[in-house]
Amino acid sequence: MSEHTPGVALVVGATGISGQAISRQLVDEGWTTYGLSRHETLPVEGVTPIAADLLDVDDLTAKLRDIEPEVVFLVAWMKKDTEAENIEVNSLLLRNVFAALEGSSVRHVSLMTGLKHYLGPFEDYGTAVMAETPFHESEPRLDNENFYYAQEDELFAAAERMGFTWSVHRAHTIFGFAVGNAMNMALTLSVYATLCKQNNRPFVFPGSKTQWDGLTDVTDVGLLAEQMIWAATHDAGANEPFNVANGDVFRWRWLWPQIAELFDVEPVGFDSEPQPLDDRMGSAAAEWAEIAKAHDLVESDVDRLASWWHTDSDLGRDIECLTDMTKSRQAGFLGFRSTPQSFADAVARYREARIIP
User: Fold this and answer.
1) Mean pLDDT, residues 191-206
2) Can 148 be counted among the known catalytic residues?
3) Contact yes or no for 207/312 (Cβ under 8 A)
4) Whole-prediction pTM value?
5) Which of the following is catalytic: 116, 118, 149, 192?
């Protein structure tokens, strides 16, 4: 096994929760790090921003012309109304990145996907024949269309053409700290709990009985970053897909009271039917604006902090979801996280950054 010393890295999707964590770790390890997004500035210090449109190959090629990354981390995606549209746009953005980097010195590309690889896309979620849990990387693809499969195919084709190695990282629900990114369950639940505290409402679990009672796992975003960088710098990570989850398992009925305690709210579990957040947060915008003003928070727009539908989709699943980490461990990646500590650490960082009171 060989290890590669820090060099030049490109993070595509640098403003997302995963992109921020990867960028932060790369900078800390001494990498020369470029962050590609639509923004002129980035939330992580030490990252050189590259503002470009991923769907405009000419713009992308011009912006990347003088960049010679050794490793590329692909954590950008776009959500459309149908899976056919998801496939079209998310295949195109990868294809454009590879076209822009044609002839460069890229030696490894790490792609982040997720458990919809095993469960199916949003519009056909959990309806196809599924693998036994915990999910293993060796399971065959489902028969239905899935933009993760299309992205993998773009990755494999580019690797064959351009001569780099690749890795795919299938994360579960992500916990972690990020600024300006709403698709983060830890922050969404923190905002929800803060609203409950402010208005003396109980902290009601919004999801399904299956999720309340069943075993599950999650992915700490720092652990995801560690695994993606490990795969890019170790021979054992080359040309392989890897699940990535914290390594512990839990039931929401066990974790929910611990989250409630962090916010001093009354935990209420599943009772007869799901109670989705998206249906109950109609007054959240006005309430959060008042909270932000009262506590001098940095963000008064709740929609920039919380993604109710995204958390509902995870907590509302009526199927068991947990992953096997054996393959990653056998390859030499031994990182892990305590899930309760992961959530508590994220809350502490959000409070320190004055994102929540």
Assistant:
1) 97
2) yes
3) yes
4) 0.95
5) 116
